[in-house]
Amino acid sequence: MSIKPSHYEQLLCQYSDRLTAISLLKQHRFYLEMLPSLRRPEESLITIPLPVVKVRQPKSLSESRLSSPNIQEAVQLPCDLAIMMCDPEWKIKLGSEILIFIHRPHEDFSHLLGRWRQTQIHLEKDYEWLMPIQEAHMLSEGGDKFYPLFVVFEHTLERIKKGLKGSCLPYIIQQSISEESEEILESIKE
After folding, report:
1. Cα separations in angstroms, 139 against 48, 56, 95, 106, 112
2. Which pLDDT band holds residue 184 (cuts at 50, 70, 90)?
3. Does the N-terminal or the C-terminal CB of the chain have fewer CB atoms within 10 Å?
4. pTM, to two decimals
């Protein structure tokens, strides 16, 4: 059985919800332990599906004037979801960021790994997140560290799982999506 576009879409929709994102982190203990408060986990993270960052690049000396020291460019990251940690008491974004890469239909290992590498390139620069509307008031400067988490399916090719393991990249295997769930998703689209 191959991975269908609806499988990818369903996971993207599910993990965009904070509570479901927490259940994802529970499958990788190191990331779950990053949550600032296990008593109030849903207030301890922010999810951003298909995230966009403003990357700041210094102007070259020939373009430099007294007005603006940097050029900003909005870039959509090639990851599927960004999870930011935030302090539930102070409502401020903290330094750790987890980037989720869901295996897409017809995507082989080199493309999946390439999305992670491209994300690393973007986030090595000075950047800030375009936050969801309800968190737009938060300071959204780039974090101290960002971590990847790959989500693959039971039916994902073994070479992809082996490649992730060989690259020492953390991944979880998503159990099969039921046909009933798939039909519900299809009816929503219509």
Report:
1. 15, 16, 11, 37, 30
2. very low
3. C
4. 0.86
For the chain, helix, strand, coil in percent to 5 are 35, 30, 35
Helix (H, G, I), strand (E, B) or coil at 79: coil
Residue 148's nearest CA partner among 78, 59, 87, 61 is 78
Query: What CA–CA distance (Å, rounded) separates 111 from 105?
Result: 11
Closest alpha carbon to 149 in 177, 119, 105: 119
Give the Cα separation of 103 and 100 in Å (integer).
Answer: 10
Give dist(CA 136, CA 115) in Å, integer.
Answer: 26
Element (H, E) at 117: helix 109-123
CA distance 35 to 28: 12
Encode pLDDT of 80-111 as tens digits: 999 999 988 887 888 889 999 999 999 999 99
- Give how far the C-alpha of residue 19 lies from the chain's centroid of Cα atoms, to the nearest Å: 15
Residue of 127, 132, 136, 43 whose CA lies nearest to 90: 43
SS3 state at 36: coil
Phi-psi group of 50: left, alpha or beta (phi > 0 → left; psi -120 to 50 → alpha; rest → beta): left
